[in-house]
Amino acid sequence: MDALKDKRLFRQQCLIAGEWWDSASGARVAVTDPATQAVIGSVPDVSGAETRGAIEAASTAFASWRERTHAERAALLETWHDLMLEHVEDLARMLTLERGKPLAESRAEIRYGASFVKWFAEEARRIGGTTIPSPTRDRRIVVLKEPVGVSAIITPWNFPNAMITRKVAPALAAGCTVVVKPSEFTPFSALALGVLAERAGIPAGVINIVTGMPAEIGAELMANETVRKISFTGSTRVGALLMRGAADSIKRLSLELGGNAPFIVFDDADIDLAVEGAIASKFRNGGQTCVCANRILVQAGVYETFAEKLAARVSAMKIGPGTEPGVEIGPMINAAAIEKIERHVSDALAKGARVLSARPAMPGGGQYAAPVVLGGATTGMLLASEETFGPVAPLFRFETEAEAIAIANGTPFGLAAYFYTESLKRSWRVAEALEFGMVGLNTGAISTEVAPFGGVKQSGLGREGAQCGIEEYLEMKSFHIGGL
Ligand code: NAD
């Protein structure tokens, strides 16, 4: 963190009620740079009782935050947004140090993260209600929108900035206050957002950030009746656990969970466009994104050409620390990630897949996984049914459109899907047949603050971003006025 221009952005304490705290026990969790495995700092390992303190702080702040006008809340969010952009270099560097992604990707994430703050600052002004035609002449009915209340925000390590702003910005815009629990692997990006929120003038207690190991913090967030909403991004396993834990106090839930995205290339596709789309969708963040292409389905007529072009691109990729210029793939987050990738590749090879790409030059040390294109993938392989979350591109050959759709939908997940075709009729047919929350046609890029983001089936509940994203933090109250 020595290279930061503004060293005060690097905080190693948690934020509760506008104060920076260590845990009473003194317990801390070390954070490492995945490129070197060197410890870059540590954060307090917060207890259940301390989490309760953060919830109480959010509850106290809620009383006055909800009373602010939408314009006042929007103005504070706008300032927070501007500060993020002002500090994009420092925030990106910090993000690369704890997550490992190339600096260019980290900068893009900070801008993407900030875009949600701007968007929801604008949406804050547009929270309206409705007037319902009354069934009788002496009554009127209106629907009011009110903030849900204290919201728990639990986020993963793969987008340490944007997954927080995508939730906190609509929560604050709606008038909710939050307790944020970032991933224990990437707490510094979250804490830096807390520093900037303070500087923006967002009042004490509106954003609280608790750090540390998840079990005790999660148990309190689930059980505490003051928490009215949990918004979670992460694995389906933990999402299900939170859903069960939230049941006793009937909390509102938003769940952005795992995916198993198909990426389908039809015979009539623009192959060069499809190769570039596959590179963007598959290898961004080293293949560690929820919307990553996990299964690349290629129609028989273009299979060889596509495979050859993709393999050539992948063989020439530059692997290394995210801070090094020109690096396309940084380190994986931890040893468990490497183990899963290796397990998927060896299972595929044992079941008949072939390596089509050359192994690019690999850096020494660090937690790196070589990017690889595998030919001859089949549905019985582990990488067909589980998210690999790494730079592995398995190619499945198919003959007919119906076969591709059956393979694509043959998963309990339904987050993102992509397909490439130049046919207008096929475009609509396939888009409507895919059982996914987001579909990209002739593009590998589907994430933007202006469109709903979220999944169906076991990929989650609710949508983030877009006009609907703020509804996740609003309750409807129907108000009946009689005797008129
Ligand atoms: P994870 O589920 O292990 O952890 C996510 C968060 O949950 C972390 O903050 C973690 O500390 C916390 N957590 C873990 N156990 C908990 C518990 N018992 N109680 C409360 N919190 C707990 O996921 P991850 O490895 O950090 O992230 C990768 C996963 O996230 C992948 O499956 C990926 O697809 C998914 N993801 C989904 C989206 C989306 O928008 N759908 C976006 C990014 C990542």
From TrEMBL:
This protein's record includes keyword Glycoprotein: no
Active site: 256
Keyword vocabulary terms for this entry: Oxidoreductase
PROSITE patterns given in the database record: ALDEHYDE_DEHYDR_CYS, ALDEHYDE_DEHYDR_GLU
Tree of life domain: Bacteria
A Pfam family matched in the record: Aldedh
GO terms (BP aspect): gamma-aminobutyric acid catabolic process
GO molecular function: succinate-semialdehyde dehydrogenase (NAD+) activity
InterPro entries to which the protein is assigned, alphabetical: Ald_DH/histidinol_DH, Ald_DH_C, Ald_DH_CS_CYS, Ald_DH_CS_GLU, Ald_DH_N, Aldehyde_DH_dom, Aldehyde_DH_Superfamily, Succ_semiAld_DH
Domain Aldehyde dehydrogenase: 20-478
NCBIfam families xref list: SSADH (TIGR01780)
Record family assignment: Belongs to the aldehyde dehydrogenase family.
Protein name, entry field: NAD-dependent succinate-semialdehyde dehydrogenase
